What we know:
By secondary structure, the chain is mainly α. It folds into 2 domains: about 1-200 and about 265-470, MFS general substrate transporter like domains (Growth Hormone, Chain: A), CATH 1.20.1250; about 210-265. The protein contains 17 helices and 2 strands. It has helices spanning about 20-55, 55-85, 85-105, 110-140, 140-175, 180, 185-195, 210-235, 240-260, 275-305, 310-315, 320-340, 345-360, 370-395, 405-425, 425-430, 435-460, and strands spanning about 1-10, 470. A two-stranded antiparallel ribbon has the order 1-2. Helix 1 (about 20-55) packs across helix 10 and helix 3 (about 85-105) runs antiparallel to helix 7 (about 185-195). It is globular and about 60 Å long. The model is unreliable at about 1-20 and about 465-473 (pLDDT under 50).
Amino acid sequence: MPGAASDANCGEDKGGEQSAPGWVLAMSVAASSLPFINGSIVNVALPAIRSDLGASAAETQWAVNAFTLPLAALLMLGSALGDRFGRRRVLMTGVVIFGIASLLCATVPTLEALIIGRAGQGVGGALLLPSSLALLNGAHSGEARGRAVGTWASAGAVSGAVAPFAGGWLVETFGWPSVFWLLVPISILAFALAWWKVDEVKRPDDAATDYSGAASATLGLTGITLALTFWSASGVGDWRVIASALLGILMLAVFFAIEKRKGDEAMMPLALFGGACVVSRNVLTFLLYGALGAMLLILPYLLIESSGYSPTMAGLVIMPFPIIIGFGSPLMGGLAERIGVRLPLSVGPLIVTGGLLLALRIGPETDYWTSVFPALVVIGVGMAIAVAPLTSEVMAAVEDSYAGTVSGLNNADSRTGGLIAVALMGGVLSLSGQALFGGFYGAVYAMAAAAALAALTGWFGLKPLEKAELAFS
């Protein structure tokens, strides 16, 4: 069971071998690509969704938040269910839920059905993501684990590169519901690979599942998200902001009280945060992915709404960013196993900061190659340096039997950062014309500040050439 966290080592290898690691990697890539593609493809479709359904800025936000909220709130529950009932079984359940929800979004093109379907995708993603990465972690060890995680990250980046372009073309050719059809065959492929090629893995003990913790965390994040959404649209004086914030804070306090009482049986054992190195990892993840999530939401929207880009072109111009991650992540995953994570997790976010500041040169009449392209390239280089080391270092920090728990925590952390960033974007999404560029520039400064804080966290929070280790008893 988890005990106190130690900062002496940040992530000693404890991985065991699982049969057919190549098939496990293929399955993990297929399954985890579902939420990755879903996030990037819908960003390109947002202007069409808003126009076709006559949605307000707040309703447009919920087309995004309806997916991200349950994904962030339930990832820890998904990891706990995988540890207890079997990671393969829970992953397959999540894939089925995700596929059915995608069909709902595709076949019932109304705002209500879209929000319900997006929420279903979030639930499915919360079940499949932590088990996907935990199975991958258990099938590889040592430097091979770093390379596998790098390949997993690069495959996600490549799918993220193709998805906006494909999504833009689908929106222009067949309408926005068609982007959700793209997810159905991928769901079938992921399910088939898990069914035929991956062995079941579960934690040896039979600890009770922390449903009360999951419920309180979900309500807490919902309250905070509602408060930020209402605040971005109506200002801090809105009674809905105050009521939602109070609900969120209260339920998060209840969540931490439950987790403290449950101890080792908690959904998110507080012992995971016993060392500064562990806390630094999670703070860095939250800040970096929050900045990235905001940029990937607002930039395509800006290009379509105020710069005259078509959805296809908006998807195409984003491609340099994920392509660079796709090529760079496998190299950095293996390198970080040899040199440690402190340097890449400091330099990477710092480069992202520079790329975000370059985005301040984007304007209504600026040329793509001299404004948008350089910013995306620099951001892509920074993320390529940071993504694989961050993921592999987190997964190497625990015993294999708790890989699902830590995978869920790390994914929940990154998704929560993106969730809060999207919730704060409502005021920007409600603007148009030149005013939209003004809101974009303000958001860019906030994103750059978050990325810079992530760089400082990596440098001062992580020890050189060392990895954090969770002690188990």
